[in-house]
Design goal:
The structure is a homodimer of 426-residue chains. The first copy, chain A, is α/β, with parallel strands linked by helices. The first copy, chain A, has three domains: 153 residues, Rossmann fold (3-Layer(aba) Sandwich); 160 residues, Dihydrodipicolinate Reductase, domain 2, CATH 3.30.360.10; 83 residues, 2-Layer Sandwich (Alpha-Beta Plaits). Helix content of chain A is 36%, strand content 28%. Chain A contains 14 helices and 16 strands. In chain A, strands 7, 8, 9, 10, 11, 12, 13, 14, 15 and 16 form a ten-stranded mixed β-sheet that branches. Chain A has a six-stranded parallel β-sheet with strand order 3-2-1-4-5-6, sandwiched between helices. The longest helix of chain A is centred in the last third of the chain and has 21 residues. Chains A and B meet through α1, α2, α6, β12 and α12 of A and α1, α2, α6, β12 and α12 of B. β12 of chain A pairs antiparallel with β12 of chain B.
Chain lengths: 426, 426
């Protein structure tokens, strides 16, 4: 029986999960892969703290990542450090040395993926990143392999567990800050939650999914991004009453020679398979010409789920080493499809407007919508208090630019007090 | 640019879907695979009927399957004939000639998979069968690859589109025969629906999934099987009222050194992700120690979805040919785990009993359950008519053998008129 040696960079939550699974299921993995996968070293700045994975790996710990990268006995490098620096230089060094690399790093792949894949191809090495999107959910491999004969037209992802947990808790009546505080105390949200709640995390993941689905380079910065911080528990309540769930979606669509890519909260009809994805669970929903609608569902984060995706990639990299066919799984970006400007996004909209409870108000607002050719689906008055009325408007699909102009005009109507919420609808 | 030649056996619904996708997306596939996939011949007994796939392939049609299998220019044989004979002999001949084989044939893989995989391994050829379970849903590859570092403990599948469609229609108030008639006229059910409605189709698929998840041979005939023909629209209505959906499930679990595998209708709680799988859609839900709960959802049948799975496998087989690493993806059955006898299945139960509306009846039935240590969760009286009352019982989990004995005793109670339904609950 052969041995494939693995070096792990980063021994945080994700790295520890990967190490634990590789050790827990070593015997099964050996049988499935046809070789023993041996962890030869684990590099982390903290070589002291016990990660409580049920194994004493203290003898494997080193503070020197390069000692693993430069070890000629190590065949596969796993990168779970996160962020671009210093992860990028380590990944480049490992690929440069001809080693296969498995990474969970969405920011790195979203930002530097094209260059890293080119380097992997040049060196005949594998660069695998299933763990970078959707945690333990197989989503990248199915796109690359099982859907290889499909033209994928649309991606709808719930790819951030923190925000989905927050929205699920707010559904129970908590307001945003209470939900966030609780999530932080449970470890579901970072002390600085910006990357999650402002949609950056989802944006990186959508860039990766879009590249895979549409075979074109998609720059994360070209993706329209809006977080969940302005969503209130009222909006969730009203949406639920109308038969919708509010989710932070990462959506991309290929149509008319452009890619429409955006991260924003949205009302999702209860009948849509993605509406039932609750709490910290994630899902990637794809529409394609062959398979039709498919969805991949599971835990989007967490030590063992992310560890599972990494360890699965390590098994694949090891198989490719044993079979002598590394470096062939790279994503082919043979298209050059531009990302459409955010102003051209076409969506239905949910808009909550506080107005003075006086005659002529609805007419004035409807008139403003009409001037920008935004047609209306329903108008529901929710509450009246202290001379103010809360009115929820659902519009038909309209271009972002027209919608913005209409809203800016509505804000100026004297009878309009404020527009606290505007959420897109799918 | 290289060319990989493909021969298609069987030009029915599934074969036509595969051909259409390979032609529709030929340019994308070429870029993704790194070679042109050329259909060199299509064998079918019917070489005349126009399959209306949008291409004139009449020049490729032949009545002679062996002419494709024996063509030294053909690298990959696709088998979409179905059934064991003559499909098995064609697949054996193709593998024997060292060709990679892609098949959609669940019966063949369930019954003869072990031998065929051994032959593929011996010949260094690929035998791929993603289309045999779940139509267009990637489920087999994720198990083999992405979950390779997991110990999978449980499978819950809705893997038959026909029965799921029937149950969804019955939810709207149709009875079983009306729903079946309609499904037959729409082409969702065969004129002889036995294989679907009696659970044989699900049984074969569960045998395949169990082998993959537990790395052990599972004989389809060892799987307990019960169809949906005795489900009534009343049961569906009552189940819905209690917060459940009725689905035909293919379930397998590894516990205590045995595999518990069964196909039967079941009440699924509304909160379970699989409860929302409606109509002809299918899903495979897995619980494992690393990724946790994951679910794979999509169209379980149909020309293009099944064609998508086949064409995806053809792309994989072609990549392996180009990379010179065929024959390494076989399923390792290194375990030898016995399938537990049906009598030992442990399930909760929904039981609908018609009783005479007289004192002492509930006591007599409860007493019978108690004698076999079947404890009760709820008892709800639904309807009383003509001196008869309909009572729905939910039991806690109990062994099949005890449940059967209790029910057989209850049937003999003079106040009991009949037991029209007994459905398991998950």
């Amino acid at each position: 029986m052969k041995t494939v040696n693995v070096g792990i960079l980063g021994f945080g939550t994700v790295g520890a999960g990967a190490v634990k699974l590789l050790l827990d299921n070593a015997e099964d993995i050996k049988q499935r892969v046809g070789a023993e996968l041996r962890i030869k070293g684990i590099a982390d700045l903290d070589t002291v703290t016990d990660r409580k994975i049920g194994y004493d790996v203290s003898g494997l710990l080193t503070g020197d990542a390069l000692s693993l990268i430069n070890d000629p006995d190590i065949h596969i490098i796993v990168e779970t450090i996160g962020g671009v620096k210093p992860a990028e230089s380590f990944v480049r060094a490992a690929l440069g040395a001809g080693k296969s690399v498995v990474t969970a790093n969405k920011m790195l792949i979203a930002k530097e993926g094209a260059g890293l894949m080119a380097l992997a191809r040049e060196k005949g090495a594998d660069l695998l990143f299933e763990a970078s999107v959707g945690g333990g959910i197989p989503s990248i491999d199915p796109i690359k392999n099982n859907l290889a004969a499909n033209r994928i037209n649309k991606i709808i992802g719930i790819v951030n567990g923190t925000t989905n947990y927050l929205l699920s808790e707010m559904k129970k009546g908590k307001n945003y800050s209470a939900a966030l505080k609780e999530a932080q105390s449970l470890g579901y949200a970072e002390q600085d939650p910006t990357s999650d709640v402002e949609g950056f995390d989802s944006m990186y993941k959508l860039a990766i999914l879009s590249r895979l689905c549409f075979n074109t380079e998609v720059c994360a910065d070209d993706i329209y991004r809006e977080g969940i911080t302005s969503i209130t528990d009222y909006d969730i309540k009203y949406a639920n009453e109308m038969g919708y769930q509010i989710r932070l979606l990462a959506m991309a669509e290929r149509t008319g020679g452009q890619i429409y890519a955006a991260v924003h909260p949205a009302l999702v009809p209860d009948e849509h398979p993605i509406a039932g994805v609750d709490g910290v669970m994630n899902a990637v929903f794809l529409s394609s010409d062959g398979a039709g609608d498919t969805m991949y569902y599971g835990a989007g984060a967490g030590s063992l789920p992310a560890g599972s995706a990494i360890a699965g990639d390590v098994a694949e990299a090891a198989r490719n080493i044993l079979r002598g066919c590394r470096g062939a799984g790279a994503v082919a970006c043979y298209n050059d499809i531009p990302v459409a400007p955010a102003e051209s996004l076409v969506r239905r909209n949910y808009i909550r407007i506080i107005v003075r409870d006086e005659a002529g108000c609805i007419a004035a607002i409807s008139g403003a919508f009409a001037r920008y050719a935004v047609s209306l689906e329903s108008i529901i008055q929710k509450n009246t208090k202290d001379g103010l009325a809360e009115v929820v408007w659902l519009t038909h699909a309209a271009e972002e630019e027209r919608m913005r102009k209409a809203l800016s005009e509505i804000e100026k109507i004297p009878l309009v007090d404020s527009i606290p919420s505007r959420i897109r609808v799918i």
